[in-house]
Write a structure and sequence with these properties.
Radius of gyration: 22 Å
Shape: globular
Oligomer: single chain
Low-confidence stretches: none
Helix content: 25-40%
Bound molecules: flavin-adenine dinucleotide
Number of helices: 12
Number of strands: 22
Length: 456
């Protein structure tokens, strides 16, 4: 065998698997294949000047490369089983939490010391939410911030680069099952290994589908979350964000009984573009460094859509809706809440007069031409519900950016060791459908590494 273990994908799942494998066993031969670039070579060409919007690079530096999709993220590590993935269904709740705490410890040892850990335990906000038909989910949140998150990744890479063979700009094309191991095929040659960890995240979702198809590994997919990113003056949410940093609040709509939830809250943050498979959607982040903070807070409001048989292409559905906003606005559309309620388009004049200054240059438009009625109605209901716990949320000038989509990778059929039907072939992180967060993806990496080392 060329390697004891080959890891495919250098996102949090792959990085923490490599970290744990090499921590005390530096004699193991490990390779990490990554389709993107090294961390310091990850540069998105959008500069707001010459390149204003996404030009669809073959290799998206925001989503791919060392650090994975989370490299330029806000670095919020949520330590909870309430959201962020279903790792606990495979390995148990206690173990899942203890692995997330272990990842937190590694982050602190690699540059994250001094960052704040927020918690929902004993908060009075929970009661206020309940009184207004809202549910605050339990979690502890380590907020690294975009800047410290980057430093942690730099430090982890400095430690790992001599212990494992990192091959950047090397997408894996196929995996073959050989006698007692696997052959990993790239454009620059093929390599054999005894164990293989696949951790290709959301950007690798299409490739994962083809691998599962080729190897006849069962999968299922039926969920997509669709909605908008809300941006408003930071003061309006400061009583929530100062205490909890990120509050995950859920609301069940009266009309359709759909679940709408807040997601990825960024106090004093910025709204950003995100490119998924060539489609421009919206996201947000914030910095720990006060100099980089803005006057606004942003968060997503998402409606979960679960499809039943015979429809299987939930991600295709989400993509089609995001494409509509790209078609109308050339990218992301922004609309004032007041204009949405009055049934009119936001134009440049109305946006310029708004008291909320947008942190993302997006085309003013009409989200009701993009989002299905059921989803838009749910978002409007939730904005009015949030207005009761954070008055001002339903102000005319509250900005809504669309479309925000959370694609869920298909769920791969795995056993309680996160192993496919082939012994030694593990699928982890967001690409497996088991996780959809930094902490869960990282914890899944540590888990399979310990599984391989016989330490679980
Ligand atoms: C803008 C943004 C902000 C976010 N903020 C947060 C946050 O604050 N908190 C949170 O919990 N989550 C956040 N997330 C989600 C989080 O980043 C992901 O849940 C997490 O990165 C998943 O880790 P992963 O290792 O499973 O996959 P990824 O991080 O997606 O990494 C997978 C890697 O595999 C590589 N790859 C794909 N296909 C191949 C192939 N065929 N061969 C080789 N390599 C391949 C990709 O290039 C990528 O680098 C955010 C995501 C984005 C995009």
């Amino acid at each position: 065998m060329d390697y004891d273990v080959i890891i495919i994908g250098a996102g949090p799942g792959g990085i923490y698997a490599a970290y744990e494998l090499t921590r005390e066993h530096s004699d193991l031969k490990i390779a990490v294949f990554e389709s993107g670039n090294e961390l310091h070579n990850r540069k998105c060409p959008i500069d707001g000047d010459k390149v204003k919007s996404c030009i669809g690079c073959k290799n998206c530096s925001i989503m791919s490369g060392f650090g994975g999709a989370g490299a330029f993220s806000d670095g919020k590590y949520n330590i909870t089983n309430d959201f962020g993935g279903t790792l606990y269904e495979y390995i148990g709740k206690e173990k899942a939490i203890s692995l997330m705490e272990y990842v937190d410890k590694i982050n602190l040892e690699h540059g994250g010391e001094g960052t704040k850990l927020y918690s929902t335990a004993n908060t009075s906000i929970k009661k206020v939410c309940m009184q207004n038909k809202l549910k605050l989910l339990d979690a502890s949140v380590r907020h690294l911030g975009t800047d410290i998150n980057y430093v942690v990744l730099e430090n982890l890479y400095a430690e790992l680069k001599d212990k494992a063979d990192f091959r950047f700009l090397t997408p894996v094309r196929h995996i073959e099952v050989n006698d007692g191991g696997f052959r990993v095929i790239t454009d620059n040659g093929s390599y054999t290994c005894s164990k293989c960890i696949v951790s290709v995240g959301r950007s690798g979702s299409k490739w994962m589908e083809s691998v599962c198809h080729e190897l006849d590994i069962e999968t299922k997919s039926n969920r997509v979350d669709l909605g908008v990113r809300v941006e408003l003056p930071a003061e309006l949410f400061s009583h929530l964000t100062d205490e909890l940093y990120e509050s995950k609040i859920v609301y069940r709509t009266e009309k359709f009984e759909d679940r709408v939830r807040t997601f990825c809250m960024n106090p004093r943050g910025s709204v950003v573009n995100e490119n998924t498979n060539g489609i421009v959607t919206v996201n947000g982040h914030s910095y720990e460094d006060p100099a980089k903070q803005t006057e606004n807070t942003n968060f997503a409001l998402l409606v979960s859509k679960h499809f039943s048989e015979p429809f299987k292409d939930s991600n295709g559905y989400g993509e089609s809706i995001a494409r509509l906003s790209n078609m109308l606005g050339g990218g992301v559309i922004v609309q004032r809440f007041g204009d949405l309620i009055r049934g009119r388009r936001t134009n440049h004049k109305r946006l310029d007069q708004s008291f909320v200054t947008p942190t993302l240059k997006a085309e003013p438009g009409d989200l009701s031409l993009v989002l299905p009625k059921r989803i838009l109605d749910g978002i409007i209901e939730m904005i009015y519900a949030l207005d009761k716990i954070a008055p001002g949320t339903a102000n005319d000038d509250t900005l809504l950016y669309g479309v925000e989509v959370k694609f869920y990778n298909m769920e791969v059929s795995l056993n309680e060791r996160l192993e496919t039907k082939y012994e030694g072939l593990y699928m982890i992180g967001d690409g497996s459908g088991v996780t959809h967060s930094l902490s869960h993806a990282s914890a899944s990496g540590v888990f399979v590494a310990r599984e391989i080392l016989g330490l679980n």
